[in-house]
Design a protein that fits this description.
Blueprint: H1 3-18, H2 34-54, H3 61-68, H4 72-75, H5 82-105, H6 112-129, H7 131-140, H8 146-172, H9 181-193, H10 195-198, H11 204-222, H12 234-257, H13 260-263
Length: about 260
């Protein structure tokens, strides 16, 4: 080997040693990649915190890279841009609850009251354990890109529909008062969502205790008032119960006589 060749070899090895290792592409390793999943989880957690604190527009990819302990070029091995990060966060925070509620509503072994309890506990638990994600969506709602905003709104409508459906079923079954289902559903959802503003995530049993208490409050908000007029006795109690039944009957009659075009308004 000539001195020139030896020098070239040394320079090549020196460059190779200085060059940072190339991260594997997402599909280069078959099956799960635990290390990649861990890094992605950390990226999502830090992005959630920063978006919630600063807003989407005021957070840069460099901020997220710094918070995660990555260089910006390394961050690009896991995420293409901020929109992709926000899209994943919005999807997990809105599409997942909608699907979960639908699954509960499809369970034929549960009655409306049991379904509403399960649904309220499920949403309360999600909010109790991911308060930052809900806050970031609320704070960044006006800044959401059009496609992400569309997904977000559609998921919100699905969540509302599932609660409305179960309350309507409860009214038909006589288990719930003849309230306006949409208003009641919005009230319950608002109460459950508010957890994100005051609850500090902790142990799962503590989160579950909070979720269960709020679920019971949600049920009492719409439960049939058969036991409500406990201070009344004799004829007064009977009249109070008859009034509830008449209100319920009037609502059923309104539903059966409503014209099809009224539902399309």
């Amino acid at each position: 080997m000539t001195p020139e060749e030896a020098g070239t070899g040394r320079r090549s090895r020196s460059k190779a040693a200085a060059r940072p290792p190339v991260q594997p592409a997402e599909d280069s390793t078959p099956g799960r990649n635990p290390r990649r999943e861990l890094v992605e989880k950390q990226i999502l957690e830090q992005a959630t915190r920063l978006f919630a604190e600063r807003g989407f527009a005021s957070t840069t990819l460099q901020d997220i890279a710094d918070a995660t302990g990555l260089t910006r070029p390394a961050l690009y091995h896991y995420v293409a841009n901020k929109d992709e990060l926000l899209s994943r966060l919005v999807s997990e925070s809105t599409e997942v609850p909608a699907a979960l509620l639908h699954d509960i509503n499809e369970r034929t072994e549960l009655g409306p009251t049991e379904k509403l309890r399960e649904m309220a506990v499920a949403i309360a638990m999600l909010q109790a354990q991911s308060t930052d994600r809900f806050r970031l969506i609320i704070r960044s709602e006006a800044e959401l890109p059009e496609d992400i905003a569309r997904t977000y709104q559609e998921s919100r409508r699905h969540v509302l529909k599932e609660f409305v459906d179960v309350i309507e079923a409860g009214i038909r079954a006589g288990e719930m008062r003849p309230v306006d289902p949409r208003t009641a559903a919005l009230g319950i959802i608002g109460m459950l969502n508010w957890i994100a503003w005051w609850h500090q995530p902790g142990k799962e049993d503590t989160d579950h205790a909070v979720a269960t208490q709020l679920a019971e409050m949600a049920l009492r908000a719409v439960a049939h008032e058969e036991s409500a007029p406990t201070t009344l006795e004799g004829p007064a109690r009977a009249i109070a119960l008859l009034r509830q039944d008449l209100t319920y009957l009037e609502r059923l009659l309104e539903d059966t006589t409503r014209k099809p075009e009224d539902d399309r308004k």
